[in-house]
Design brief:
By secondary structure, this protein is an alpha+beta fold. It folds into 3 domains: about 1-150 and about 155-210, no CATH class; about 220-330, no CATH class; about 340-444, Homeodomain-like (Arc Repressor Mutant, subunit A). The chain has helices at about 1-5, 25-40, 55-60, 65, 85, 90-95, 135-145, 155-160, 170-185, 200-205, 220-240, 245-250, 255, 265-285, 290-305, 310-315, 315-330, 340-350, 360-365, 370-380, 385-405, 410-415, 420-430, 435-444; strands spanning about 45-50, 95-100, 105-110, 125-130, 195. A hairpin with a 5-residue loop joins strand 2 and strand 3. The longest helix has 22 residues, at about 220-240. It is elongated. It starts with a helix and ends with a helix.
């Protein structure tokens, strides 16, 4: 491959000139196959097909089909100029390299492939949909409003966006697409065309008019309604720290009825668990658990989901996830505290790694009398400020022992206890084992 890319024509432009006995088409196919494999390793949905074929469910993961948008909308519509002024831009109409942001703010990387003598129609490599950043719940509501879509679709869109990978365009995919185009076409002046249709409210309204008239069978409607009701019931149970109720609500065919949006059962199941992880996090957030803990547990569960190699590896994760989020709420629910004590608890949750954190410092930060804070804290939480600080530090140390290869000394310092002997005494007092024994038990 390196030899192929080293060839230059009279203009000095590097291009795909095959070695002896190999054609340009054969060489290009190898490079395109490598590109497709690379994009798949980034968890992108990748396909190669004629640009005049419809945007089928396996291209957009079922979005347009679900909304009832006519099935004759072609892939080339993601490449065409959005406005007339764009069409006057030569780059817009001529470039085979397109970064397309559709009206639902889903992004696609599209490469029009060099003409293949064996294929009469122009084909494209299309990778997506993906996001450049996570879409907030507020943003979802704005998209629905701009698209004239009903509020009832909010949960579905939240689930859909949660399954999409996040890729930074400027730092990764866009330079790669540009380099790929230069290699295939041998044109150093070739530029990316950025197509943005996300601000087209009128065209959006026309395309999604059919959503209100989408036909569902009575059974499908009933199952969809039940699923949303059970999701709400499950999140309320998590917010209350009620493990049994959460497990009961999360166990049923309504959750298994998620639409198929990926080419494999394993990927579909992982996507469903990503959705479940999001729902659990939002449920726990209702209880007032600090985002630091929510983000930490959410990331750990996401790693477990992606690390699973088989469907059987995923089977235990739903119940484990529900139990852990409920336990998190049981441990860190702050709704019952007064605003002052809630601030104190949250400050400890965020600044536990500060070796100087103490009752005196906390009182100074909150601008409260030390004795007043100590009495109120003990009355509402049942423990002293010092005990809470130490419990938080040991809790975070346990997490690091479970998920990292840091030494005991490094972990002690990272939770605000640089004296290893003192850290070990505190750990043993709370866990009845030393940090080393705790790690050994986990590995066992």
């Amino acid at each position: 491959m390196i030899n192929w890319l080293q060839h230059r024509d009279d203009s000095g432009i590097p291009h795909l000139a095959g070695r002896k006995g190999e054609t340009l088409t054969e060489t290009a196919k190898i490079l395109i196959d490598m590109a497709a494999e690379y994009l798949k390793q980034l968890r992108l949905n990748v396909s190669i097909r004629p640009e005049d074929t419809p945007i089928s469910p396996d291209v957009d993961l079922g979005l347009r089909q679900y909304l009832g948008i006519p099935g004759d909308v072609k892939i080339r519509s993601l490449m065409r100029p959005v406005q007339e002024r764009d069409a006057r831009d030569g780059n817009a109409s001529d470039s085979p390299l397109v970064i397309s942001n559709d009206r639902f703010e889903c992004r696609y990387m599209i490469l029009r492939l060099p003409q293949d003598p064996e294929a009469p129609a122009h084909r494209v490599l299309i990778a997506g949909p993906y996001l450049t950043e996570r879409i907030s719940l507020t943003r979802i509501r704005q998209i629905l409003e701009r698209s004239a879509l009903p509020e009832s679709l909010f949960t579905w869109f939240a689930q859909y966006y949660s399954t999409l990978p996040v890729q930074s365009g400027e730092d990764g995919l866009e330079p790669y697409l540009l380099a790929l185009g230069h290699a295939l076409y041998g044109d150093p002046d070739l530029q990316l065309y950025y197509r943005d249709a996300s601000s087209e409210p009128e065209r959006m309204r026309q395309d999604v008019n059919a959503v209100s008239g989408t036909e569902y069978s009575d059974k499908a409607r009933e199952l969809l309604q039940l699923r949303y009701e059970k999701e709400e019931e499950m999140m309320n149970a998590i917010a209350a720290g009620n493990t049994e109720a959460a497990l009961s609500a999360g166990d049923g065919p309504y959750f298994r009825s998620m639409e198929t949006r990926a080419p494999s059962r394993l990927r579909d199941r992982k996507n469903w668990l990503i959705i479940l992880n999001t729902l659990c996090r939002k449920g726990a957030q209702r209880s007032g658990v600090h985002p630091v803990y929510l983000d930490d547990l959410s990331r750990r569960m996401a790693v477990k989901i992606e690390a699973a190699a088989t469907l059987s590896d995923l089977e235990r994760l739903p119940r484990e996830m529900l139990r852990k989020y409920c336990f998190l709420v049981q441990s860190f629910d702050t709704r019952c505290y007064s605003p002052t004590i809630r601030k104190a608890v949250r400050y400890i949750d965020v600044h536990y790694a500060d070796p100087g954190l103490s009752l005196q410092k906390l009182a100074a930060v909150l601008k409260l009398n030390k004795c007043y804070l100590a009495a109120g804290f003990r009355r509402e939480t049942g423990s002293t400020v010092t005990t809470r600080i130490n419990e938080t530090r040991i809790s975070r140390a346990c997490l690091r022992l479970e998920t990292s290869d840091l030494t005991i000394g490094e972990i002690a310092a990272s939770v605000g206890l640089p004296n290893v002997n003192y850290f070990t005494r505190l750990f043993r007092k709370q866990k009845n084992v030393t940090p080393s024994q705790y790690r050994k038990m986990l590995k066992g």
